[in-house]
Amino acid sequence: MKLRRTSAVAIATVAALGLAACGSDGGDGAAAGGNKVKVGIKFDQPGLGLKTGATYSGFDVDVANFIAAELKLEVEFVEAVSAQRETLLKTGQVKYIVGTYSITDKRKADVSFAGPYFIAGQDLLVRADDTSITGKDTLNGKNLCSVKGSTSAQKIKDEVPGVNLQEYNTYSLCVDALKSGAVDALTTDDTILAGYAAQDANKGQLKVVGNTFSTENYGVGVKKDDTEFCNQVVTALKKFIDSGKWEESVKKWLGPANYTPGAGNPPTPTCQSA
Amino acid sequence: MGELFAEFNVFAAFGMTILLTVTAAIGSLLIGTVVAIMRLSPVAVFQRAGAFYVNTVRNTPLTLIIIASNIVMAVNLGFNFSKDFSRNNLIWAVIALSVYHAAFVCEAIRSGVNTVPVGQAEAARSIGLTFSQSLREIVLPQGFRGAITPLGNTLIALTKNTTVATAIGVAEISGLMSEMIEFRSDLLLFIFLIVAIGFVILTLPVGILITYLSKRLVVKR
Cross-referenced NCBIfam families, in alphabetical order (chain B) (predicted)? Predict the structure, then answer.
């Protein structure tokens, strides 16, 4: 009986500690006026937003860090996978998202965008010695790869009917299939492709075709109708571009793939909402 | 909710789920029965081989087996059944699902065989039946009838496990689900609801049928 009482006290103590820990944790996150904010990025896109161990690298990470420095915020990165981005912003779990987030009318119904800060487009990644593929019109009889459920996969099905499309759940499997020759091209935004081509493991083996067939305006996602914050982000983005840091960052992360940003870059960001 | 049905071919995707389930159920029943016979056989080599198969496959994640079937077998070693990716992936997915679930089918059959009293096998041997004859005529027919409930559990697990096939691009319902989320994230809850209800419609009748059959076909002793 004595033992049981002791353990009951122990359990109560642990529970109280746990609750207290939760409370203080929640307090930090909820303190909107504080300097520490959560920022959503991609964790799995080399050259854009990549988590290796405890460090984050890539163009989107540079953008996110610059905004934070301008607005005097302390950043904690969290993963914002494509399907969850609107929810993360709506529920306030992240302050802003910099993760190859294309500005579309459908998304503007849920969130506001500061941007574009980069204009990308759907393109093709091929083996470096492949000269037979020069754009989407040369894909007849070729094997293609993309990610299941992505906009790029849907677009290529619409643009090139009857294409032999392999769909995986990650781009890295596509890169593997491309290098082994099982597929002839990988399609998605040219920035993502350049990021893979610039990876050490793929350097010199792959190239971005450079003939885009869509326009993706990347924006910084913020909570809908938070105009004040949105405008602050726009000012920071303008400074990022004007100071030359934009060009420096693009060159650093995507340059090794011999990639140059397409027409219209660098763009003029504005605050956009529906 | 109607928009989702108009915009996406939900029924075709569930059709693919059913196709995967049925073909892999047949495949895993065949492989599983063979492995079970190996484990029940008096030959030590077969017993060890059967036990090795079950312990290896059962303890490997299904995602790994399915992705390996594509990346290792099809992409890197070039074992392809068809030039057409969707067909090739479907066949590899069926093989991977069959191989994986065969381990569970084997153990379900062994548990069924355990319900057959030793006296049955002894009686069979004493009237002069060989090992394979006694297995075929006496032990396995009773064993399968005793194994219906665990086999049913495996079938239901298989139905839900077909969703892993999306990892290599088979166009079944979970692949369509990620597509629907990408394009209609405004209808997120309805998307989950459709998929969840669809699976209940698929698995609930199987469960009821299994309970009915296991009562009806049980060997009364």
Answer: HEQRo_perm_3TM
